Amino acid sequence: MYSIGKKKRSFVSESVKHLFIWLILGFSLFPLYMVFNISFKDNTQFYNQPWLPTLPLNFENWAKGWDNIGQTIANSIFLSVSATAMALAFGISAAYFFARCKMPGWKIFWAIFMILMLMPGVANLIPLFSLLKNLNLLNTYFALIILGTSGGQVVTIYILRNFIEEIPKDLFESAQMDGAGHLQQILHIVIPFSGSIISTLAILRFIFEWNSFILPLVVLRDETRLPMAVKLYQIEGAYVQQWGPMMASYAIASIPLILLFLFTMQFFIKGLSSGAVKG
Amino acid sequence: MVKEKFSNNIQRISKDWRAYLFVLPSLLLVLVFSYFPAYSAIYHSFYDWNGADIEKFIGLDNFRRAFTDGVLGRSFIVILILVLANFVKMVPSIAVSVVIHRLKRENWQYLYRVLFVIPMIIPGIVWLLIWKFFFDPTFGILNKVLEVTGVMSLLQWIDSLAGWGLFVEGVDPAWLSTPQLIVPALIIWGFPWVGVVGVLIYLAGLSSIGTEVYEAAEIDGIGWFRKFLNIELPLIMTQVRLNAALMIINTLKSYGLVLVLLGVSGGPAGAGMVPGLYMFRKAFVDQEAGYACAIGLLIFALILVLTWINNKYMRVDH
């Protein structure tokens, strides 16, 4: 008798937990639902029935949305991929230096990076802008890529150094015996052994770059070069509100990251859950 | 000794100078794009500078001006309110992670982790623009939700007692264009405020609690809240403190949120103006880059002081 009562109570308490989570989840995902829902409505349908999907589905909203931001999605992909790749390439080699080569001066170099960890770069924006202007880099992708690369250095180096230090030393030593240089050691030992943390860092870096908004807003002038974020911000205020196409463009802007996430879900959740990325 | 070490170093460098090539690119990048701008910001904060041709040394005038600038003063109050609100907004993440952790079946735990990651992969700008649309008085979803759920009538009832004149029957509150409603709107946005990075990090902290601890607690008849206070909270306190520190720093730095929701003037009457946005506006709209640098340094100094306090008095120990 007692055990049945206990089972029942545990079933009820489990259900309460699930209910709580689904409620919060419902609120969290509600905006996303509304974006997809409204993206298929014309304005009349939206005013009459904002909550539920209505027929006919207006697929031309998505075509208009694509006209609005299709180009900028390509721009964003180019910018994010380049900045992520460069940030990781430089970050990995610097982390290798700190983990494996205790060359004279390394402590000073390390301090140069770690001080930045404590320095919030809030006052930097204005001098950065004038620096780019003096270097003649305003309105170039190069400026954004190089800034994304340099901005990604400190955390990448900090996290990767720990991982590289944990790779067994014998591996590096035997590679050196075989005459492998630094570059070979990075390519054949560091990258294969810290692959999962590198992919986590890459995904986080990519998301960061994909979301980057203020820098491209002040650096880029050309309408055709804008990344997705700046373009969305501009069209939001610019036209008479056509909610359907607007929501379709929001949905389109989210799709690349959703795809990325579907393919890299394990890395992502494992990396964040292990707490390795706490910084 | 010193001499010996020195010649040792020379030997090492000449033998393996190539190693430096691996740190050099990163080093150059941060020197040029982090250290130089920081130096330049300090330097220019003492100048009357328009970002281009005018550059005149004026000593501490920018800072004096900042301390008497009413708009800046109010912007610090706004950001203070937002920081305090963000403390409250940390609660749902903690609650969600604790509830997920308490689930008995691991596959459910995994599924929920995946589902809670979804909001994170929506670009930040899209998230903000959706909420901007939600806040729209006539078409926005927020007012409709408040009406459907009856919260609106509650607000109208409270208003009729308090006499704010903000929630009146038959009039849709305009969240982003009524000065008194702007700060509440900046707090409400993002409801239910579950940050996925937070949830995953808390879950990592909680994962060290074995089921036997819970079973023991159940035998002792400890209620769910006592379980939270005595078992779970102490274990995630490190993460909570870390997240709180990061949250404060990020809130003080942030202004993209206000820029997107309210525009560069911080909304009507500048009611949503935050220090970062004021700096941005001074530099890029009003061409007062020198003053903007000084404002940036004040925000920087504030963050530095808070970081120091955090390190000194909130030592994370197990």
Automatic annotation (TrEMBL), chain A:
Annotated membrane topology: Multi-pass membrane protein
BP GO terms, sorted: transmembrane transport
Principal location: membrane
InterPro entries in the cross-refs: MetI-like, MetI-like_sf
Domain ABC transmembrane type-1: 73-264
GO cellular component: a single term: plasma membrane
Keywords, comma-separated and alphabetical: Cell membrane, Membrane, Transmembrane, Transmembrane helix, Transport
Localization per Swiss-Prot or TrEMBL: Cell membrane
A Pfam family recorded for this sequence: BPD_transp_1
Membrane spanning stretches: 20-40, 77-99, 108-129, 141-160, 186-208, 247-269
PANTHER family in the cross-refs: ABC TRANSPORTER PERMEASE PROTEIN MG189-RELATED-RELATED (PTHR43744), SN-GLYCEROL-3-PHOSPHATE TRANSPORT SYSTEM PERMEASE PROTEIN UGPE (PTHR43744:SF8)
Family membership: Belongs to the binding-protein-dependent transport system permease family.
Name of this protein: sn-glycerol-3-phosphate transport system permease protein UgpE
Organism field: Limihaloglobus sulfuriphilus
GN (gene name): sugB
From TrEMBL, chain B:
Predominant location category: membrane
InterPro entries xref list: ABC_transporter_permease, MetI-like, MetI-like_sf
All copies of domain ABC transmembrane type-1, residue ranges: 75-310
A GO BP entry: transmembrane transport
Pfam families named among the record's database cross-references: BPD_transp_1
Transmembrane segments: 20-42, 76-98, 110-130, 181-204, 255-277, 289-309
Cellular component terms (Gene Ontology): plasma membrane
Superkingdom, natural source: Bacteria
Keywords for this protein: Cell membrane, Membrane, Transmembrane, Transmembrane helix, Transport
Subcellular localization, as worded in the UniProt entry: Cell membrane
Membrane-topology descriptor: Multi-pass membrane protein
Gene3D superfamilies, per database record: MetI-like
Family: Belongs to the binding-protein-dependent transport system permease family.
PANTHER family to which the protein is assigned, alphabetical: ABC TRANSPORTER PERMEASE PROTEIN, INNER MEMBRANE ABC TRANSPORTER PERMEASE PROTEIN YCJO
Name recorded for this polypeptide: Maltose transport system permease protein MalF
